[in-house]
Structures are given as structure tokens and as C-alpha cells.
């Protein structure tokens, strides 16, 4: 493993920034240095100090005047939906029946799965995202393909084979036993292999029979260290259908509660229309609500009330995500731009430091991986993004009037996309420049 020294304007968060002038919530170095060795950050701080520690003979990669941040994390994506992103005119249940299920049935073909997994991870790295929490298709081979590609890139990714045994076409269904057996085999093969982590993945209550929900609960009990991911309270028709399918339940969240699926490593996509009881149940169990703004706007699902969820007496842990292909952009910068607008429609604001906290440390904490990624702390994995706030003519022009770091971050979020991502490092290795255009 070769050592390297990065130089640039480094920014990393220590905790949630209460306000725009809450300077002790982050660490910013105008001339910062990061010493990387063996895929980890060995030293971080002012460049002069880090360079002294590094000693002679270590080459400096000079990223000045760009910003160096921890790589972004995306807490909810659907790998098999790359070829249905930007499909017109549907709400959630129609979207699934018309576009998603036919598309995901193509993943019976393992070669197709491998091709899309490769292109998906390339795209994520181009956008500065170094960790995703991914839904593969129902087919075991789609998860194998994803993990193989992820492992080859040495990325820290969390993923699972979707479990679904009803209310969808034959080509995307498993059975309670097959879903359990395939998940078990994938866990044995991939969880903890290199940086790979497995997530138990029942798609949602509508496409899993009570028997399959029991099996998902059994997997969670047998593997309490694993993540569990599913969808919750995205759309009114979805909520009503769930109540019909589980007539004994108090509400949608109660279905997952009943099968033992709540907990600190449980990730619930959307959570838009929760009752107070449901929000309390998520809070008390430490479960995570995943905010997917571009998807929620695109499918007309509703407005996630980020600030109210944070401030309530029993607050929710929150992660942010693209939810591609229901989401409309692979970029977490574009995602937080839309997130800002959703929060504005709820009469609130999310300041730029809070936003970049969410993209990095905030998501890492929500995913319980902040000891490994999401900061520039010494001893963590060197997953890093380099951002250029002058990446386009319009950004360059706007930068002429930018005076503060907060303004620069807000410009990056509002106008930035993959063009603003100059380089990405995965475990210390340059990853964006390594992808063929
Ligand atoms: Zn989703």
C-alpha cells in the first residue's frame, strides 16, 4: 500500500451544526492536509503539520483551491432501476407495476445484473458517493453481481436481495423459504467480506406475505448485527392497501413492529405520512427514517417533514437518499438541493452546514458506520470527495460574489452536480479519474 498526502481545504463534521455560526460543530482547514496509508486516514490537520508527520519522500497531491470532504453516503437506492429512471406519469403503485417490476424481471439474467451493477457503481463514484445502501432485485444473482463489483472496487456498501413473494409478476417473486435461504447464503458469502455489509431487504409489506414477513423477522433475530431495509408510509394508496392486507394492524408501522423489524439498524424509506404513534415507535426503537426528496416530489408522494421529525420530543434518526430510479438524480448535491426545497415548503430551512453534515457524518451515523466513514477523522477509511465550486461558467460567475464557506457550500448544493466532483478516493485510491468516460 502506498502512502499519499492530500492538500486542499478540508472540511469534516464533529456533530450536528445547530446554526450557521456553530463553528465548533465542524473542523475546517483553509490549508489542510490528509495523510493516507493502507486505505486509512493516518493524520489530518493543517497541511504543514501533516506534511511534517509524513516526512520526506511522500508525494503531495495538491487539490487546492478545492474542498476536500468525506465521500457522500446515499442511504436508499435501487440498483436495477437505472433504465427506468425518468419514466413518465405514475404514482407509487402504478410506478411499480408499470415500470419497476417488468424492469427488475430482466435481472433473471445474471449477465445483465453484472453489467448494471458495474455501471451503477461507476455512476455513484462519478457523483462523489462512496457508500450506498442498495436494493438489488429479487434474484440472488443480482446481489452477487453487486457485491462482486463493490468488492472489486473496495467500496463500503450495504446491500441485499429483495424479498417479495406476492402482488407482483411471477418473474420477480420468490417464496418465503427461497427468500430466506437465498438471504442466508448471501449473508454467509458476503457480509463482512472486505468492506461489504448485508442488509435484510423485504421490499415492503404489500409484496411480502405474512409468512415472508416472519422469515424476515427470523433473519433479523438470527443476525442482529445486520441492517434491515424496507419502505414505509410513502403514499396514501400504499398505506390503505397495507391496512387491507394486515387488517389487525394499528397502522403501517405496526406491521413491521409486529414482525420484529424495528431497531437501530433498520432503515425505512420515505416515512412521509406517519402518525404521532408511528413516529414515537420509530424513535423509541432507534429506527431510521430515510428522506428521499427527488423521489417524493417526482412520484407526488408528499413532503417529508425533516425539521419537525428532528425537533419532536421523541426525535427521529434521519438519513438522506436519492432513491433512484424513483428519485430523479444520482447526485447527493442535487438531492439536498431538492431536500432544501421540500423543507422550505414545510416552512423551515436547512442551512448549508446541516446539509453537508447530513450527506457525510449524518448519514454515516444513521447507518451506524461513522466509525469507518463519513468524516476525515484519523483512523477512518479514506473515502473522500474533492469538490470544485467553480466547475461551470455559471458557478464560476456566482463564486465572484461568494465570501463565506457557508455561501460556497450552498452554491455547490444549489448549482453543483457531477461536474463539481473533481476526484473521489475509495480507501485511498483515486476512483473517479480511474473510470473510463
Ligand atoms: Zn425505494
UniProtKB/TrEMBL annotation:
Keyword Hydrolase among record annotations: yes
Pathway the protein acts in: Purine metabolism; guanine degradation; xanthine from guanine: step 1/1
Gene Ontology biological process terms in this record: guanine catabolic process
Entry superkingdom: Bacteria
SUPFAM superfamilies: Composite domain of metallo-dependent hydrolases, Metallo-dependent hydrolases
The protein's required cofactors: Zn(2+)
Keywords, alphabetical: Hydrolase, Metal-binding, Zinc
Recorded GO CC terms: cytosol
Residues passing through the membrane, by range: none
Listed EC numbers: 3.5.4.3
Transmembrane helix recorded as keyword: no
Catalytic activity: guanine + H2O + H(+) = xanthine + NH4(+)
Cofactor stoichiometry and binding remark: Binds 1 zinc ion per subunit.
GO molecular function list: guanine deaminase activity; zinc ion binding
Domain Amidohydrolase-related: 68-429
Family in the record: Belongs to the metallo-dependent hydrolases superfamily. ATZ/TRZ family.
NCBIfam families for the chain: guan_deamin, PRK09228.1
Function (record text): Catalyzes the hydrolytic deamination of guanine, producing xanthine and ammonia.
Name of protein: Guanine deaminase
Organism of origin: Rhizobium loti (Mesorhizobium loti)
Amino acid at each position: 500500500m502506498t502512502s499519499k498526502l492530500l492538500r486542499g481545504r478540508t472540511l469534516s463534521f464533529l456533530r450536528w451544526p445547530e446554526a450557521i455560526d456553530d463553528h465548533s460543530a465542524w473542523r475546517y482547514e483553509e490549508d489542510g492536509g490528509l495523510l493516507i496509508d493502507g486505505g486509512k486516514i493516518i493524520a489530518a490537520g493543517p497541511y504543514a503539520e501533516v506534511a511534517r508527520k509524513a516526512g520526506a519522500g511522500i508525494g503531495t497531491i495538491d487539490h487546492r483551491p478545492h474542498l476536500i470532504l468525506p465521500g457522500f453516503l446515499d442511504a436508499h437506492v435501487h440498483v436495477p432501476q437505472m433504465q427506468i429512471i425518468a419514466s413518465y406519469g405514475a404514482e407509487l403503485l402504478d410506478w411499480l407495476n408499470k415500470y419497476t417490476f417488468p424492469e427488475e424481471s430482466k435481472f433473471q439474467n445474471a449477465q445483465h445484473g453484472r453489467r448494471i451493477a458495474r455501471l451503477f457503481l461507476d455512476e455513484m463514484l462519478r457523483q462523489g458517493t462512496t457508500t450506498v445502501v442498495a436494493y438489488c432485485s429479487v434474484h440472488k444473482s443480482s446481489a452477487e453481481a453487486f457485491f462482486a463489483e463493490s468488492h472489486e472496487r473496495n467500496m463500503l456498501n450495504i446491500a441485499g436481495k429483495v424479498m417479495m413473494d406476492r402482488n407482483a409478476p411471477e418473474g420477480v417473486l420468490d417464496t418465503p423459504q427461497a427468500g430466506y435461504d437465498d438471504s442466508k447464503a448471501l449473508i454467509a458469502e458476503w457480509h463482512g467480506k472486505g468492506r461489504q455489509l448485508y442488509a435484510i431487504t423485504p421490499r415492503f409489506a404489500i409484496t411480502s406475505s405474512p409468512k415472508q414477513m416472519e422469515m424476515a423477522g427470523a433473519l433479523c433475530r438470527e443476525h442482529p448485527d445486520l441492517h434491515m431495509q424496507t419502505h414505509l408510509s410513502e403514499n396514501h394508496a400504499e398505506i390503505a392497501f397495507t391496512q387491507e392486507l394486515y387488517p389487525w394492524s394499528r397502522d403501517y408501522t405496526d406491521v413491521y413492529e409486529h414482525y420484529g423489524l424495528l431497531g437501530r439498524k433498520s432503515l425505512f424509506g420515505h416515512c412521509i405520512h406517519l402518525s404521532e404513534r408511528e413516529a414515537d415507535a420509530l424513535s423509541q426503537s432507534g429506527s431510521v427514517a430515510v428522506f428521499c426528496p427527488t423521489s417524493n416530489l417526482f412520484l407526488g408522494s408528499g413532503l417529508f417533514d425533516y425539521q419537525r421529525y428532528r425537533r419532536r420530543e421523541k426525535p427521529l434518526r434521519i438519513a438522506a437518499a436519492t432513491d433512484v430510479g424513483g428519485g430523479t438524480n444520482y447526485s447527493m448535491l442535487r438531492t439536498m438541493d431538492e431536500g432544501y426545497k421540500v423543507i422550505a415548503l414545510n416552512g423551515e430551512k436547512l442551512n448549508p452546514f446541516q446539509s453537508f453534515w447530513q450527506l457525510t457524518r449524518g448519514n454515516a451515523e444513521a447507518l451506524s458506520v461513522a466509525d469507518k466513514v463519513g468524516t476525515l477523522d484519523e483512523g477512518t477509511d479514506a473515502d473522500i470527495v474533492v469538490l470544485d465550486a467553480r466547475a461551470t461558467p455559471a458557478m464560476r460567475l456566482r463564486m465572484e460574489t461568494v465570501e463565506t464557506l457557508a455561501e460556497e457550500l450552498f452554491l455547490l448544493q444549489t448549482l453543483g452536480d457531477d461536474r463539481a466532483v473533481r476526484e473521489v478516493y475509495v480507501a485511498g485510491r483515486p476512483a473517479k479519474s480511474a473510470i473510463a468516460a
